[in-house]
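User: Hi! Is it possible to get a structure for several chains at once, not just one? Here's what I have:
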Amino acid sequence: MSDKKNWPLWEVFVRSKNGLEHRHFGSLHAADAEMALENARDVYTRRNEGVSIWVVESKHITASNPEHNGELFEPAQDKVYRHPTFYDLPDEVKHM
Amino acid sequence: MKNENLYNYILGIADNNLILGQRLGELCGHGPTLETDIACTNISLDLLGQVRSFYQYAAKIAGDGRKEDDIAMLRKERDYLNVLLVEQPNTDFGYTIARQFLFDVYHFLMLTELEKSQDLTLSAIATKSLKEVSYHKRFSSDWIKRLGDGTSESHDRIQMAINDLWTYTDELFHQTEADKVMVAEGIGVDVTKLKDDYYNQVGNILEEATLEIPERKYFQKGGKQGIHTEHLGYLLAELQYMQRAYPNMEW
Amino acid sequence: MSEEQIKNLEEQFEARILRDDKIEPKDWMPEKYRQTHIRQISQHAHSEIVGMLPEGNWITRAPSLRRKVALLAKVQDEGGHGLYLYSAAETLGISRDEMFDQLHTGKAKYSSIFNYPALTWADMGAIGWLVDGAAIINQVALCGTSYGPYARAMVRICKEESFHQRQGYEIMLKLANGAPEQKDMAQDALNRFWWPSLMMFGPKDDESPHTAQSMKWKLKRKTNDDLRQQFIDQTVPQADILGLTIPDPDLKWNEAKQGYDFGEIDWDEFWQVVKGHGPCNKERMKARVNAWENGAWVRDAAMAYADKKSELKNKQAV
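Assistant: Yes, the chains can be modeled jointly so their relative placement is included. Here is the combined structure:
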């Protein structure tokens, strides 16, 4: 094994077509951002899967900790009034 | 053959793609990283896709019942018209990239002109190919810079590859008899006119890559006349093996 | 963490898997789950990239340009699939370099099928048809596995691989309907690849130590023997369409079990190949190690270049 630094890991986000958001497609290794873009093009859009690519070095992503899932996400569970089905309307009112 | 000049002209373009595509195909599974491996295979696939369009057209021009594979695989050594540059072996990744780069810059310039051809088929193939080759050029230029301005080892290796392959660059701008006729008919590209642009572009990238531009007064040539380096024979032996060992079969 | 707490977490963890919850990289997981997944996913990745070699041998000799581009694209896909899988394993805290190192030093295994030589063009057909056919059966089952990144990689891989088996079968069809020489070539390839393909599903259930645990974690959805049976039942009629003969005199339809009975697999050969005594183990490893070692200066150069450029950028920013 070479004792030099290895190519870092990058996360790849691809927009499949205009109008859609970029979606996480996977990861790859590259020495720099330029190469990460090229590699992403070669690895993840071989079958016409994309019109735009974002790459970001994995270490720059800050992720929430699943151990905090309780405090982060559960409080939203009982806020049913944020959903349309919470409100009672007569059937005659259509499309609201 | 009624239009032998056009036929030979097409082969002069297409054989470059075939031989370089074949060379890159040898590398599949052996790249320095998976990502680079996949990228080089993409280039090979682009070149071989282009070559199929060219040979299908050449087969139509020949009109003697031969198909694309007959033209690709059943000619003799002296009948292949590719330039010497593309048949040079994959000595290491430096040679692979140097060969690619020295070809890509030419390929892009040539196709840009071919797009203006009076021959609509050639013009259409050129249009489609240009997008692919534009990416090839970007890919190989980027790697020239990385290797040239990377470590001292990579600098030396890519410099050596460039120096060794430089001798095959001048041939890219030689005109064959078929070329001259095709240029006169508004079909072919006058490659002699691409030379200055080529060496400027190549020089700029090499400079950016902190590499020396080789000084050479004597260049190798012959590919366009079917006089190749010894490397081509081995390449053809593999390329043609199945068609030669099992003649007249469908695959 | 106390033993009590760990036990509690483990119970919750197993309950999540039972509910078909996916496990994601940063979730707590038992160490054994992590290690088992690293082992299986990296083995799977190694199989993809070692699997590039036998077919890669034939790229330069493909008999037509159409076959050449199809084979190139297929072998390239295998590289891509290796990459997806290495990435999935990396989410568990192992680097690709470490995994390569395990492969190159023989610590990690890969599918033994790739230690058999690809001798003729028909082997490209047989590998696509049988080897990819067997792999797909395994992989479809894994699309629902419990570890999210692995399951997602499998979904992508299955989608991309759908052309692989067809590519192989089409080669076989052409040969089987071609000249006598071609048909012989196809039969010969089937003869050589049939039994190794059956071995791809691993040892019999009663000799497969990981099955129970793997079933629980959905690393396996069916047992080795069930998958093998499924493969045989779907492949025999395909051989009939080709007019080729499966090289097993004991193969016959069993009406009661609605499946084929088949002959005894040579398990001694299986274990010998696993242990490194297959026809091509050494060549395959040599090719991988060479690619990696010969590429070291290239990888280093790219890193050095990237460092220089980012230093320059930082300086300019100041």
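Chain B touches chain C through 48 residues (CB under 8 Å). Residues 108 and 133 of chain B are 6 Å apart (CA to CA).

User: Great, thank you!
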